[in-house]
Design brief:
Chain lengths: 153, 159
């Protein structure tokens, strides 16, 4: 997918998270521009998650311990293929309830594998992909989470 | 039957109400603010829409930001006879501007409009009934959580 020039999309709730992180010198702008240019670029060094989200999510390191999780929505009748930023948050292994990967697995309602994270290059076997249904469910749970509600009843 | 007041008369009544309140009595002051708000609303009742320039001033944002919000369907526009350009419906604008002002006072600087819309949706049941038609697809898309395109040019070196 080299030099593809994709557009980047986020859920409104994630847009608010990103807005709150502006000015913190996380390298967000550079990462997003590179992601738009080519999600598989060596400069980005995106890595595939391990476990149940491996087919769906890749992660990028930002500054100050932050990570950006993204996927790619395949082309449909309505839109071209596009990158979806799923979440931006801090890696926090001490307080796992706040750890981005814990949050992300909760949002997809799958278990976060406790160890053996191989972190292969994101595009080794093609780009990650998220379906419309997966994305709708994810966004619904995300909205509830960011409104301070519980993720699962 | 109550007499219809002119905008100037409503402003004068609101002014008198506020001036007459005891600033040391929080309850009385709160009631006076409520009364003055009602007076001013009555005075503004005839004003059904505002220009984009007026709207940008009320929301305290640049015209560029306002246009971006309009393009995304987050600010409704209507066509009004006599006016060549699109206008912003008054009630929706004033409610939003009030929420945005409150958020700014609380120190919030970014994501103001989405937060303001979210608050109105959650806290003001009348809001959805009254303004859903005006917002149309834009508001419904936001309520559904549809995706929004990231403006890459909006990120600077400090981000």
């Amino acid at each position: 997918m080299s030099g593809s020039g994709l557009e980047i999309y986020v859920a409104p709730a994630v847009e608010r998270v990103i807005d709150d992180l502006r000015g913190k010198r996380l390298g967000l702008g550079d990462a997003l521009r590179e992601l738009a240019r080519d999600p598989c670029s060596a400069q980005l060094d995106a890595r595939r998650l391990s476990g149940p989200l491996a087919p769906v999510v890749c992660g990028i390191h930002l500054s100050r311990g932050y990570r950006l999780a993204f996927s790619v929505q395949p082309k449909t009748k309505v839109h071209t293929a596009r990158v979806v930023v799923l979440y931006v948050g801090k890696r926090d292994t001490r307080r796992r309830v706040r750890d981005i990967w814990e949050v992300l697995h909760d949002l997809f309602e799958v278990d976060n594998p406790p160890a053996e994270h191989h972190r292969p290059p994101c595009c080794k076997d093609g780009t990650p992909s998220i379906s419309e249904t997966e994305l709708d469910d994810f966004i619904d749970r995300l909205r509830r989470l960011l409104r301070g509600r519980t993720i699962s009843p | 039957m109550s007499r219809v007041l002119s905008p100037t008369e409503s402003m004068a009544r609101a002014f008198v109400t506020l001036r007459g309140a005891d600033p040391d009595d929080r309850d009385a002051l709160s009631a006076a603010v409520q009364d003055a708000t009602t007076e001013l609303q009555a005075g503004l009742a005839d004003r059904l829409s505002y220009s984009k320039t007026e709207a940008a001033h009320l929301l305290d944002v640049s015209s560029t930001t306002l246009e971006k919000w309009i393009d995304r369907g987050l600010i409704p526009v209507v066509q009004v006879p006599r006016y060549k350009r699109d206008r912003i419906p008054a009630q929706a604008l004033l409610a939003l501007a009030g929420e945005v002002k409150q958020l700014r006072r609380q120190g919030r600087q970014r994501g103001l409009l989405l937060e303001a819309l979210d608050r109105l949706e959650r806290e003001d049941p009348q809001w959805q009934r009254q303004f859903d038609d005006l917002y149309g697809e834009g508001l419904r898309a936001m309520q559904r959580g549809d995706l929004v395109k990231v403006d890459l040019d909006s990120f600077g070196p400090d981000d």
